[in-house]
Amino acid sequence: MMRYKDDPRQIAVRYPSYCEECQVRLPRGAVAYYWPRTRTLLCSDCGEPEFRSFLSSAADEEVYAGKGNPL
Fold first, then answer.
1. d(Cα 27, Cα 21) in Å, to the nearest integer?
2. How far is CA 59 from CA 3, 10, 28, 64, in A?
3. Which one, 22, 34, 42, 68, has least CB within 10 Å?
4. CA dist 1 to 34, 67, 69, Å?
5. Which domain, by its residues, includes 48?
6. CA-to-CA distance for 4 and 31, rounded, in angstroms?
7. DSSP H/E element including 33
8. Is 2 contained in some domain?
9. Which of the two residues, 17 and 71, has the higher pLDDT score?
10. Total count of domains within the chain
11. What is the pLDDT of residues 17-64, one digit of tens each?
């Protein structure tokens, strides 16, 4: 899958922070999802469904462009 600089990604939090959606505290080392374009950080509960949706859409785009595997 092609990766672009503004694609969301899963990260390990380097500094204590908070989830943008539910305001849960994210300690250093916690798994979170980061969206660079909006600079949004979401905890694993809030971010995983959105991140999986992004990955599904990106895979669909590759199939439509003739570059991905439809299976």
1. 16
2. 11, 17, 31, 9
3. 22
4. 18, 9, 10
5. 9-64
6. 21
7. strand 31-35
8. no
9. 17
10. 1
11. 999 999 999 999 999 999 999 999 999 999 999 999 999 888 888 888
- Residue 35 CB partners (closer than 8 Å, separation 6+): 8, 41, 42
The DSSP bridge pattern shows strands 31-35 and 40-43 to be: antiparallel
27 within some domain: yes
Question: Taking a C-beta distance cutoff of 8 angstroms, is the pair 34, 21 a contact?
Answer: no
| Separation of alpha carbons 55 and 62, rounded Å | 11
At 9, the amino acid letter reads R
- pLDDT reported for residue 21: 95
Report residue 57 as tokens: 């859409």
Residue the block writes with tokens 């950080």: 41
